[in-house]
């Protein structure tokens, strides 16, 4: 990598980090390109070299968030041989993680669904694809566990996770995290053949 490529990569990274923080603090529509480049200490021309538009920047942030999510997901279940235990491990990890800070209860994809509700928007499509991939991965684990109606169970578990994420934003540390694991276990038990 030459010096120019290194500077470009550093500028791109700074834009992603800064924009992510600003979008978390203020929302997508409330933050303009001028604010992003000023806070990042980067020129508007440099930003547009990396991202043709603010929407493309948001899309890149969603892609990165998705990569981080899947790293966390696979790390959470790594080394757990029983698929049912993998499912429970996911819920246990979410229960531990969510009440800790406002950032941990913030779902970028839920925020996108609110601010970009139109299905044809690239951010909305990215969010929908990410959420559908979670359902498919949960369904795969449910199938491996030999649970009945794995598609239905995966959707139910997914809705439960999403609901917990939202409720954690309201209740923080008082969010019923123990209920999360217990209810997930009960739901999984109800799908045993």
UniProtKB/TrEMBL annotation:
Residue ranges annotated for the HTH tetR-type domain, each copy included: 9-69
Keyword Calcium: no
Portion annotated as DNA-binding: 32-51
UniProt-listed Pfam families: TetR_N
UniProt entry keywords in alphabetical sequence: DNA-binding, Transcription, Transcription regulation
Keyword Transcription among record annotations: yes
Superkingdom field: Bacteria
InterPro entries: Homeodomain-like_sf (IPR009057), HTH_TetR (IPR001647), Tet_transcr_reg_TetR-rel_C_sf (IPR036271)
Database matches in PANTHER family: HTH-TYPE TRANSCRIPTIONAL REGULATOR YJDC, TRANSCRIPTIONAL REGULATORY PROTEIN
Name this protein carries in UniProt: AcrR family transcriptional regulator
Protein's organism: Paenibacillus eucommiae
